[in-house]
Amino acid sequence: MRRSATLTPPLLLVAHGTRDPAGPRVVERLAEAAAARLRVPVHVAYVDVIGPTVADALRAAGDGPVVALPAFLAAGYHVRTDLPAQIAATGREDVAVCAPLGPAPEIVEAMLRRLVSAGWRPGDRVAFAAAGSSDERALADVRAAARLLGRRVGRWLTPSYVATASPAIADVCGPADFVAPYLLAPGSFHRRLAELPVAGVAEPIGTHPGVIELIARRYRSAVHDRVFLRPNSPHRDSSARIGVLQRDRPA
Asked: Could you tell me which residues come within 8 angstroms of residue 166 by beta carbon, excluding any fewer than 6 positions away?
């Protein structure tokens, strides 16, 4: 039976995908927590490397509106191009793709908590480390996240990267630095950070309660604005392609 548009649509949490089992475990835990928080069905999909694919997950979600939330920390290629294209390939016109997880104050709060757990104290140096991207729009999001964290730690933070972009974290960090990973889940990038000769490396953002609240906020904003009723078009402007909303409030 097709769901009425007036009913609360399920959530599709979409991540990149990795063969490292630690990554999918975090995504699954986020999905479980979001389902409990929102009291709606939450499905998981991956845009690359592993399944279930976006098409698989949409079939599992059934007919009717779906809100897709990219579990990404920046709006790069996978958020702006790959995910909308994969949705369009299914023929579905009832899927809204809302803004990704980051940058957002809740993400930065989680990073700060992870830093404190790693031994950082006010006044200590911080090195902001992201995965890296060749997409300038994604890098702009990373810079925005670094500014947000910088305000919390009282320092101007310039992002550095594990791969692809520059400067490389290995070239800029020092023995007195605490590394703040702009990473959602453990994996090869975090293992590389853990090998750096620094004062400490914080854990990835993971399933911090603030992330669950952010997922709930993104979802509710999409439902409130009824963006799930607007067709998913792969060739409209970028704001429309990700569910009309870029951010449900300024980050």
From this structure: none
Residue 150 φ/ψ, nearest 5 degrees? -60, -40
Query: What are the pLDDT digits (tens) for 72-98?
Result: 999 999 999 999 999 999 999 999 999
- For the domain bounded by 105-201, which CATH number is listed? 3.40.50.1400
- Model's pTM, two decimal places? 0.87
DSSP state of 12: E
Domain 11-102+208-241 has CATH 3.40.50.1400: yes
Residues 6+ apart with CB under 8 A from 246: 75, 99, 239
For 137, residues 6+ apart whose C-beta sits below 8 A from its C-beta are 74, 75, 76, 80
3-class secondary structure per residue, 35-101? HHHHCCCEEEEECCCCCCCHHHHHHHHCCCCEEEEECCCCCCHHHHHHHHHHHHHCCCCCEEECCCC
